[in-house]
Amino acid sequence: MAGYKGPxxxxxxxxxxxxxxxAVKRCLKRIQHNDKINLSQHFGGEAAQALKxxxxxxxxxxxxxxxxxxxxxxxPLMRGYEVWxxxxxxxxxxxxxxxxxxxxxxDRPGMHTKQAVKDFVxxxxxxxxxxxxxxxxxxxxxxxxxxxxxxxHWTGDAxxxxxxxxxxxxxxxxxxxAAGMPAWQAxxxxxxxxxxxxxxxxxxxxxxxxHYNHCHIGI
Length: 219
Hints:
By secondary structure, the chain is α+β, with helices and mostly antiparallel strands. It has helices spanning about 20-30, 45-55, 70-75, 80-85, 115-130, 165-180, 185, and strands at about 100, 130-135, 160, 190-195, 200-205, 215-219.
């Protein structure tokens, strides 16, 4: 998000004012396609309701308060966040390393997303044409929603890239092309579950959980 300058600076709710309020409003307006949200620095009723919807969709307490927990979910979706994060991220000696970085709390302590997953996400990001952030790695439920099947995330074999709407569809298609699907075929894919070239790619689907706010990539 234009204007984003770094980490969490403090909480606010309906009635709050300031640049941080405006930044959150711009992000909510964009990801929810909500034209009712204006771009002033005043955090009004419409913005508070949009924040509650965001919290509910991300399994957070929908209290309309922008605090540190909500910040960890929303910040990676802000334009400009990746610029701040990349300046502080350790670099690998690889041409692909500038295309992807792990977001805060993406991995659980002691268990990291495998390098092969990061490398493929990097290739998908290169195809996409912009850097991306892995918002969820091994810091994930052990089992796939509604099943007793162990999640690829749990073992470090999968990553989620947080996005919404048209950008999510574009990135999902980019991942399909990076996995080996012909570009003309990927252009017709609007979402679902795809297994291409040994890669498991999910976006714009509720199979296995809500994949309308991120693209799942598993190896």
